[in-house]
Structures are given as C-alpha cells and as structure tokens.
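Notebook, p. 212. Picked up where the previous page left off. The plan for this session was modest: take the two constructs that came back from the sequencing core last week, fold each one, and keep the raw output in the notebook itself so nobody has to go hunting through shared drives later. Recording the first one now, exactly as returned: residue sequence, then the structure token string.
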Amino acid sequence: MAFIDNFNLFDKYNMAYFTTDSLHPNDIGHNMIARNIIKSIRSS
C-alpha cells in the first residue's frame, strides 16, 4: 500500500461537521480517517 487518500474522504460532506476550524478534524473526523486507514490496511 503506497497511499491512503483521506482528503477525498470528506468530498461529499460538509466539512463543518468533521472539523474544528474547517481544517483540523474533530472527533468524528478522526474516527472517519481511522476507519478509512483500517479499511485500506485490511484490503491490501
């Protein structure tokens, strides 16, 4: 596995729900990123 795309994970959502300042993830955003990383590792 060379790259895990966590940026485009949020493309279809309003970033205000997943960030504290429109840039840094809040608890929900961190959870989504972690789940995406785990999914990528398991599928590799």
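Okay, moving on. Second construct, recorded in the same format:
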Amino acid sequence: MLNIENDFKNYVLKNTKPENRAKMAQLLNTKKEHEDKADLTPMGVIDFITKFYALVKPEFRKFVDNIMDANGNIRTDNYYMFEDARFDTAIAS
C-alpha cells in the first residue's frame, strides 16, 4: 500500500498550486498520521476535504472524485491515474 500512497501523494502534489505544495504535503501527512492512530473524526475528514479542494489547482478539482472517495480515502481502483506521477517525479529529480 505504501507505493499507492506515495504515488497518490505525488499525483496530488503535481496537481496542487505550486505555492501550496508544502501545505498540501503537510495536510496529506497529517491525515495519514490520524488514520494510523485511528483518531480521524468526521469533522477531521470534512476539514481535510475542504483544505484539499482549496489547495489543488482549480482545473484538477473535477478529477478528485476519480482518485478519492467522499471520506478522503484513496480510490485504489483508479490507481492507474496516479501511477504515472512516480515516473514524472523520478524524471524531475
């Protein structure tokens, strides 16, 4: 699952406004920490999704439903959509 999570994160960061990438990375890390501790509340999910939509590029918002469900979970059935982000990141480094 770690590769899926990393690829998802790279895909999201690639589609985040450049000036907000650090905030998005922190937002994704914080959500993951709460999930790992099993203390992500419904209010926390709403807060995450609200901030998530505010940070991504406007043209990307219509694709969010394809990669994330209403609870902010990664939609692994559409993994192919963000798998290529791994290669884009590798090329850039």
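Notes on construct two before I forget. The chain has one domain: 2-92.
Flagging for discussion at group meeting.
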